[in-house]
Amino acid sequence: MKKVISIMLVITMMVTMLVGCGKDEKVDNPVTSTTKGGDVVATTTKEEKVSQGVTDTTVKVGNTAATSGALAAVGVPFNAGIEARFKQANDAGGIDGRMIEFVHYDDEFDPVKALAATEKLINDDKVFAINGHFGTPTIGATLDLVKTSEIPVVYFAAGIASLYNEDATTLENGKGLFPVQPIYITEGRLMVARAIEEHQAKKIGVIYTNDDAGKDLLNGIENQVKKLGGSYTVVKEQINPGATDVSSAVLKMKNEEVDVIMAASIQATLPTIIKGLISQGVSKPVFTTYSNADATTIANFADDYAASKEKFPIYSNAWVDLSNKEEVDFFVKGMTDFGKPEYAGNAFAMAGWIAGCFMVEGLERTSGQVLNWENFMEAMESAEFKIPMGGTLNYADGQRLGTQAMSLLKVSEDGLSWENVKPVEDLNVIIDRVK
User: Fold this and answer.
1) Other beta carbons less than 10 A from residue 103's beta carbon
2) Which residues fall within 8 angstroms of residue 60, CB to CB, at 6 or more apart?
3) CA–CA dist 21, 19 (Å, integer)
4) How do residues 202-247 score in pLDDT, each as one tens digit?
5) What does each C-alpha distance from 151 to 161, 171, 207, 362, 384 come to in angstroms?
């Protein structure tokens, strides 16, 4: 009889332990201490709990992005790419049976609204993570908040310098931040290397916007010219973001007889710069950032460019490789089957898709573990990521560098599309060729 009672007690204890280890409860992981001789001296437990935004059936992820206003042409397809990748994952059963729930607020590209919306995501909606943190000014306004909130942020739709970190080993200095896109300072260096390789440029003109993106690109350009030394020089002129008249900046480039012009600005200002160059008959090669590598951006100056008497090459970097048919087809099928087919050829939707892929893979890497911030961050650093339609990226040992491998695009003769000129190559490989 005593034996039966003992067995029943053991079964009861086992059932109690199993019930107490449900997904949304704390999990006691045994931690054993031993002496030098190998004898067990004590056994303790480490309690693990799921982080906010996680239930038995869902994991909540959110972002704020400009889905109305001047930047809606970027924000809408970007979010469509994220949502398509999440729906694809959900239709396949989710992550450990959890569906990804996406919460979005439109910040209209306004830093004040972005800060309020990000606070709401973290404190009211209690999202597990932010995915696709969008836009240079809004990221700058919210960076301190997300660091102090200790919440993971996967993918930033910008390349501001404050995201670059070679030693993000604590939450205070950005352990929870996972940039993917190129950092503008790095890209500025790359633009110089490309200008020298393609056009043997010595005197480099820079028209840059007075914002983080423009100043970071200028910083990278000047940094690379300084490294090269000797006969290389920079002529620079500042303009306001969204300026409608850049004639004085263009005139300076014309009078200084620069070899090439770096348009260090993002989507809203590039068309004004190109139109300004055309109107004053300046036909020097132009290099701009990957942020402008989309048909939507060049459509705003296509008619002027097509009608111009003297064509000049317009280049952009790109960090995706459209020659990788398998990965491009996977994206197109994903947008067609799970998202909005009209964005299946949109570069900003590709960026959103990549953002969603990084989030999904990070969650998948925690499969079988308690889904909390600590385990998620360790999972993000545990192995190299393959960037869909791009190179690779590694967050190990606190590296937060963004991708440093990019291809080179060029505007077609009719001004309607971007054409590939050079394949995806690492910055250091290109620099070595032009030294």
Assistant:
1) 18
2) 53, 54, 101, 103, 125, 126, 127, 128
3) 5
4) 999 999 999 989 999 999 999 999 998 889 999 999 999 989 999 9
5) 20, 9, 37, 14, 21
Do residues 203 and 256 make contact, with C-beta atoms less than 8 angstroms apart? yes
Residues 178 and 189 in one domain: no
Q: How far is CA 63 from the centre of its chain?
A: 13
Consecutive H or E run containing 234: strand 233-239
pTM of the model as a whole = 0.76
- CATH assignment of the domain containing 344: 3.40.50.2300
In a domain, 28, yes or no: no
Cβ(347)–Cβ(293) below 8 Å: yes
Q: Report if residue 51 sits inside a domain.
A: no
- C-alpha–C-alpha distance, residues 265 and 91, integer Å: 39
Count: domains in the chain: 2
- Determine the structural domain holding residue 84 and report its residue range: 59-182+322-403
- Cα 416 from Cα 301, distance rounded (Å): 9
Cα 169 vs. chain centroid, distance in angstroms?
20
d(CA 431, CA 428): 5
Can you tell me the distance from the alpha carbon of 420 to that of 202, in angstroms, rounded to the nearest whole number?
Answer: 24
Pair (396, 419) in one structural domain: no
Q: Give the separation between CA 319 and CA 169, rounded to whole angstroms.
A: 26
